[in-house]
Write a structure and sequence with these properties.
129 residues; 3 helices
Length: 129
C-alpha cells in the first residue's frame, strides 16, 4: 500500500471519529480512538513513536515523538485546537524530514468540520494524490 492509499483510509477514519465524538476533546482521546479505528481497518498503527535524530556528530535517541505512524510510512500529527498555526505545518514537515518519511497528515480535531482540519504535508513526493 502506498502513502496516498494509506492517506485516503486515514482521512475516512478521521472523519468518522470526528463525526462520532465531535470537536473539543483532548488530543490524546482522538489519538486513542483513531488508532483503534485504523487498526479495525487492517492498518498497522504505532503510537507515540520516538524518532531519533542526528545533529552533526551527536545522536539523540529521542528527537521527537510521532503521534501516530501508519504502516511505517505516514506520520499523523494530531491537534485539537480552534485553528491551526503555520508552526504546526512546519513542525510536521520537519518531522517528515527527520524520520525520512514522504507524507504526513496534520489532523485538527478541533475544527468544526473535519474536512477543514485536514492538511496534507509532502516531503519529496507529489503533493496532490
Amino acid at each position: 500500500m502506498n502513502e496516498n492509499e494509506i492517506a485516503k483510509l486515514v482521512v475516512d477514519a478521521a472523519v468518522k471519529v470526528h463525526s462520532k465524538l465531535g470537536p473539543g476533546l483532548l488530543e490524546s482521546v482522538y489519538e486513542t480512538v483513531l488508532a483503534k479505528e485504523l487498526g479495525r481497518r487492517g492498518l498497522t498503527v504505532m503510537r507515540q513513536v520516538p524518532v531519533p535524530i542526528q545533529y552533526e556528530d551527536l545522536n539523540f535517541d529521542e528527537g521527537f515523538r510521532a503521534d501516530i505512524i501508519v504502516e511505517g510510512k505516514v506520520i499523523l500529527e494530531l491537534k485539537s485546537v480552534e485553528q491551526l498555526a503555520k508552526v504546526h505545518h512546519k513542525q510536521l514537515f520537519t518531522y517528515l524530514k527527520l524520520a525520512d518519511k514522504r507524507l504526513g497528515l496534520l489532523l485538527n480535531f478541533g475544527a468544526e468540520l473535519m474536512k477543514e482540519g485536514i492538511k496534507r504535508i509532502a516531503n519529496g513526493m507529489r503533493d496532490n494524490p
